Amino acid sequence: MAKRTVSFLWKLYAILLCGFVVAPLGAVAVIAFQSRRIAAFPIESWTVSWFREALVDRQLANGVFTSLRIALLVATLSTCLAIVSAHVLCRTRVRSQLMYFLGVALPSLIPVILTGIAFLMYFQLLGVRGSGWSIVVAHTCYCSPLALAVLYRPYLSLDRDIEDAAKNLGASPLQTVLRVILPQIFRGVVAAFVLAFLLSWDEFVIAWFVGGFTNTFPTVLYGALGTSYTPSLPAMTVMTASLSIVLIGTVVFCLDRRAAVQGEMDG
Amino acid sequence: MRFVVHHRLAKLLRPSRLVLSSHVLWQAVFFFGALAALVLVALSKVEDYRLTPSLSFDALATIVSTGRYVSALQNSLSLALSASILAMVLGCPLGYALAFELSPRARRWVLLFLVWPFCSNYVLRMYGWQLWLAENGVLKSLASSVGINVGDISLLNTRGASLVGLLSVLVPLSSVLVFLSLKRMNPVLIQAARNLGASAFQTLLRIHFAYALPGLVIAFLLSFLLTLGDFAATSILGGNQEYLIATAIQDRLKVNALPEAAAMGIEMLCVAAVVLTIGFLVLVRTRTEGHALQRE
Question: Cα-flanking dihedrals φ and ψ of residue B47, to 5°?
C-alpha cells in the first residue's frame, strides 16, 4: 500500500511541475480569447476577433516575417557549420576535442546578455548598422552549438565501412558527403535544423541588442507589452506556438525513430 | 626556400582544410571578434558623443568602484545563486522520477510537457506569468472568488516574481539534465548494493547521488549562467525593482556610455569564466569518481 502511495506522490509531483511550467502559456492562450482590450481576470466575455486582428496588424506581421526569414537563414547556416564540426570531432584527430568544442560552443555557454552586448559593440566598431543581417550572424554564432550537440551522436554512429567503400569505388569527398553521409544522418540534420530554427525564432536578448530598427517577433512583443498592448499579441503567439509544437513534434519523431532503428540494429 | 614556404602555405589553405575549419573560423571572426570589440570599447572613452579608441581604464575603474555597480553585481550573483539552488532542489526529484518512478509512457508525456513551452516565445511566457501574478490576474481573482482577501500584497515587481519566471525555464532544464545523468545507471547496481548489505539511504547516497552528480553540476552551472544573462524575466516580472547588471547595462546604453556598458560586459565575462572553470573542475572530478564506480 505504501508503495502505491509513493508512486502516486511521484506522479503528482511530476504533474504539478509540468503544470507550473505550462501555466504561463495557458494564461496567454486563454487571454487571447478575451473580448476586453485590457487583460483582466475573471474573463467575462469571449471572442475570436483578436486572431483576425493579429493577422492584419502590420507591425506584428513584419515582426513575424522578419523572424521567419532570419530563423531560416540561421538554421541553414548553423546546420551546415554543425555538420562540418561534427566531422571534425568524429573523423579527424584534433589535438583536444574539448578545446575545439569549447571554442565552437562558447557563445551558447556564456550569459546571453553578454553575447548580446559584445555583438552590439562589434557592429558599432565596424560601423555596421543594426539590421537583419547582423542578427543572422549573431544568431548563427548562438545557435550552431545546439545544432552540433544534436548532430554529434548521429555522426558518431555513422557506418564507416560504407564511407570507405564509397571512397574505394572512387567517390570524391563531396560525393561521399552528399550521397553517403547526409542520407544516413538525415533525421539528425532535420532535428538540428528545426531546433536551430526554433532557438533563433524565440531568441529575444541578442535580437534586441543587435537589431537596431529591425524588429523580430520577440522584440515587437517586448516593445508593445507596455503601452501598445492589445490581445492580438497573445493571439499571434498562440498561432505561432501551435506551429512550433508541430515542428517540435517532427523533431521528437525524427529522434525517436532513429533511436528505435538504432535499437533494432544493435539488438 | 620560397618553394617550400609556398608549398606549406598551399597545404594550409587547401580547400578541404578551409571547409573543415569553417565553424571555427566563423566563431573566430564573429564571436571572438565581438569579444575583442567588447574589450576595445571598454578601454575607450566617449568624447563629444563619439567613441574614441584609447587605452583608458576609466570605465573599468568606475564599474569596480562605484557603489551602484558593485551592488548590481552582488544582486545579480545572489539572484543567480537562489535561482540555481531552487532549480536544483525542484528539478532533482523530477529527474529521479523520470529515471525510475514513471512508466515509459508517462515519461514521454512529462518530457513533452517540459519541453513544449520552449517552442513558444520567451517574452510572452514571462507575460503569461504577469497574467497570473498581476492585480487582476489569475491568482488574485481565484483567491477572491474563493473568499480569501489577499489585500494589497503585490506579487509582481518582486524578486519572487522574477524567480517564478526564471524557474519556469530552469526547472525543466535541470530535471532533464538530472534524468539524462541518472539514465546511465545500471539498475543492477542497486540490487548489488542491497545484497551487500547497504541500507536504502546508503544506496541513495553512494549510487544514485554519484550518478546524478554530473547532471546536477551542469544544471547548476547552466541555471547560474542563464540567470545572469536574463533580462526579460527580471524586467517584465521583477519590474526592474532590483538593480541588476542587466538593468545597469541598459542604463548605460541609454545614455550612450558604451565603455561602461562594455566594462560591465567584461565583468560578466570574468564571472562566467570563473563559474565555467569551477564547474569544469568539479565535473572532471565527479566523472572520474563515476568511472571508478562503474569499474567496480
Answer: -120, 130
